[in-house]
Amino acid sequence: MELTERFEWRGRRIAWGRTGSGPDVVLCHGTPFSSVLWRPFAEALSRDFTVHLWDMPGYGLSSKHAEHPVDFGAQADAFAALLGHWGLERPHVIAHDFGGAVSLRTHLTLGVPYASLMLVDVVAIPPSGSPFFRFVQDNPEVLDGLPAYIHESIVRAYIRGASHRGLRDEDLDALVRPWTDGDGQPAFYRQIAQYDERFLEENERRLENIDVPVRIVWGLQDTWIPTTTAERLRGLIPGTDLNLVDGAGHLMHYDAPVALMNEIRTWLPAPQRP
Questions:
Q1: Is 180 a residue whose pLDDT tops 80?
Q2: Strand, coil or helix: what is 235?
Q3: Average pLDDT, whole number, for the chain?
Q4: What is the mean pLDDT of residues 106-110?
Q5: Rounded Cα–Cα distance for residues 111 and 109 (Å)
Q6: 155 vs 136: CA distance, rounded Å
Q7: N or C: which end of the chain has fewer CB within 10 A?
Q8: Count of H-run helices and E-run strands, the chain
Q9: What sequence ranges are listed for the domain AB hydrolase-1 (predicted)?
Q10: Angle between helix 198-206 and helix 72-86 axes, rounded to 10 deg
Q11: Per DSSP, what are the bridge partners of residue 7?
């Protein structure tokens, strides 16, 4: 599944794609990833659902203009506008990492309705961020000027660390590629520099107001966001459940794809076939 469509919004170009037929499902990626990690799942789900993929502004195939904010608030505004462009009234939303905070803000602050929400190893509540994040936030301009080969090595090592089982070379290449050209290198550090936990604090204050079904799925070996955060998130959302997947780190899509697809299939409504 390729992102062949473009949505022009506030000077940004948002890449998106759609496949299949049936109830609407929207897949949201996180940082420093792109929709590429959801593509096999979109293809598998397309038999029974209309599946929508998108790259957030500043990520993947979407535009990466330096003057455009890429924080949680800007991404939620973009997501709400994109859902309006698609004409979706109550989609099922499945979000990973940063996409969790974006989808939560879109629902809780901007009032966009969903049919359901699945949160997979998400950034959603504070505290968050790693020592690497803090270093980048303190030195964004210095890192912008790194030689390209050093920058690529940093990105490869960083993304590789999100997997518990290890990534195949072709999968790692696909995740790293958007960050290695002239626009991608500064965009990689810019999205970290603009990371602002105040949006997560606002999400946390509003979580008790969620009025749609929510499921949380987490890799038991996630070293980026520990399961203690998942447990606390479950306690903040009324009526939700938490499923821990053994053998999976932060990138469950690659560590335990069958388990993740089983979670998605049992969560989404049963297909209506003739």
A1: yes
A2: helix
A3: 94
A4: 97
A5: 6
A6: 12
A7: C
A8: 12, 8
A9: 25-257
A10: 60
A11: 14
φ, ψ for residue 142 (rounded to 5)? -60, -45
Look up tokens 């070379």; give the residue: 169
Residue ranges with strand state E in the chain: 5-9, 12-20, 24-28, 50-54, 92-97, 116-122, 214-219, 241-245
H/E/C letters for each residue in 20-48? ECCCEEEEECCCCCCHHHHHHHHHHHCCC
User: Partners of 114 in the beta sheet?
Assistant: none
Q: Which residue is listed with tokens 């940082």? A: 31
- Whether 86 has a pLDDT exceeding 70, the answer reads yes
Query: At 53, which helix (H) or strand (E)?
Result: strand 50-54
For 33, 64, 212, 265, the CA distances from 148, given in Å and listed in that order, are: 19, 17, 45, 41
| Single-letter code of the amino acid located at 127 | P
Place of tokens 């499945």: 94
Q: Kind and range of the H or E element at 143?
A: helix 140-144
Count Cβ neighbours within 10 Å for each residue of 109-137 and write b for 16 or more, e otherwise. beebebbbbbbbbbbbbeebbeeeeeebe
Taking 90 as the threshold, does the pLDDT of residue 158 lie above it?
A: yes
Say if residues 44 and 27 touch (Cβ distance below 8 Å).
no
Q: How many CB atoms lie within 10 A of CB 240?
A: 17
Q: Is the pLDDT of residue 263 over 80?
A: yes
